[in-house]
## 1
Amino acid sequence: MGEFPGHRPTFSCRNCRNPVAFWQDLISKDFWGKSGRAFLFHHAMNIVVGEKEEKQLITGLFTIANISCSNCGEVMGWKYVQAYEPRERYKEGKFIIERAKIVKEY
């Protein structure tokens, strides 16, 4: 949980303030998670990726893996592992982090 020069602001776990994403990696704020609004990121850090599972989401069938904070274990969202619809393949390898699970820090 150190400083990241040149990478401010960061998005951190609401529970423990562990940094989980840089604002530069934010792709979109126009997504939805289990608890409401969610953000799509190119990369996430300080997370643990869980087991893969197939899940029917609003935009189609995906293989996803839940992601948790590496410090406190809070489930933050998920990683898109595979998209079965060609128009959704841009999400593969990217991360959904729920807005209610993070704070923006400067």
Note: DSSP finds no helices and nine strands in the chain.
## 2
Amino acid sequence: MAIKNSFSLLLSSLMVFALIAIPTISGQPSGTTWCVANPKAQDPVVQAALGWACQQSEAYCSRIQRGQNCYSPNTLRDHASVVFNTYYQHNKNQAGSCDFNSAAVITHTDPSHDTCQFESVPGSK
């Protein structure tokens, strides 16, 4: 009887652990979102949205400057994704904060690469 109770306790503990750990195994909480350049958007739309976001705050664009950790790869969409996500993370509780005239989309996949880490701030979206 003691073995059966021990096994039941172990099984229950493993189930609780699985319910808690599995959603965060990726290192990000379940439901984490990022904002990246829309691969279907035309380059002029992405460029205009990037310019607008940089005008909102120089801080949004500081990480894509030459010598900074998100400069490479030096492409319009890579730079736009960094800036769009930074804007989104700081404004994600506002409707439409990841739209940029359809130049951006929400993703649940962390777009971080090499030395460029995309921030993620918990929020309502």
Note: The first helix runs from residue 2 to 21.
## 3
Amino acid sequence: MRLFVSEGVPGCLPVLAAAGRARGRAEVLISTVGPEDCVVPFLTRPKVPVLQLDSGNYLFSTNAICRRQNL
């Protein structure tokens, strides 16, 4: 899984905390991007945080990302 975060974005702090708790249970690559970088190809506006799953699907809800990383 790959987690995209940006400095200064409020939703990134909880997902980083969840990623820290998931260490050892799931492999998560954390990438820092700019707030204007478009990570999800089908969204018209930039959105972070985003979790790209191994299947290629994207989660861009902070709550959904935190739940996914706690599995």
Note: The chain is about 25% helix and 20% strand.
